[in-house]
Design brief:
CATH superfamily: Ribonuclease H-like superfamily/Ribonuclease H
Low-confidence stretches: none
Number of strands: 5
Helix content: 25-40%
Number of helices: 5
Strand content: 15-25%
CATH topology: Nucleotidyltransferase, domain 5
CATH architecture: 2-Layer Sandwich
Shape: globular
Mean pLDDT: 90
CATH class: Alpha Beta
Radius of gyration: 18 Å
Length: about 170
């Protein structure tokens, strides 16, 4: 499984917008500094994923995520491939027995297909303002549940990874 986390917040993400020729697009904008993090791991072979919302990026939240991931897939051995964030290597990290962590080379987010998932999720949030963090969380949840496993697999199954794994 490939793992990563991404921040979602109330600052409006501005994107392109279609309008009639000569009409300047008007996009509502806000700059509220409230946010949450989506922790997510995806199996590129099956398209199955596991997501959790967390308040911070730290070893406490990451330990909680690992514990829940381990429980969800308690009958499986998981190789979790991720970046080199400092809290991924913290001394306080408690890795469950059925999870083995492998790290991607430093400064190479393009190697993590999970980044593509987040990019796709965030395209649905462009030019929208949310009044509350709960409203944003509800929308992100709606987006997450709209994906089929086939769609997820098509987003994250990079050819070079599939070839390397002989899937």
């Amino acid at each position: 499984m490939f793992y990563d986390e991404s921040r979602f917040g109330l600052i409006t993400s501005v994107g392109r917008k279609w309008t009639a020729k000569g009409v300047k697009p008007i996009i509502p904008y806000q700059q509220k500094y409230e946010y949450f993090y989506l922790y997510q791991a995806t199996d590129i072979k099956t398209g199955e994923d596991f997501s959790m919302y967390m308040s911070h990026l730290d070893s406490v939240c990451f330990n909680e995520y690992l514990k829940n991931l381990s429980e969800k897939f308690k009958n499986d051995n998981i190789v979790l491939i991720m970046d080199n964030a400092s809290f991924h290597k913290s001394k306080q990290l408690k890795v469950p027995k059925n999870i083995k962590i492998e790290y991607l080379p430093p400064y190479s987010p393009e190697l993590n297909p999970q980044e593509r998932r987040f990019e796709d999720i965030k395209k649905f949030l462009k030019n929208i303002t949310f009044k509350t963090i709960e409203e944003l969380e509800k929308k992100v949840t709606e987006i997450l549940f709209s994906y089929t496993k086939k769609q997820i697999k098509s987003l994250v199954s990079y050819n070079y990874i599939i070839k390397a794994m002989n899937i």
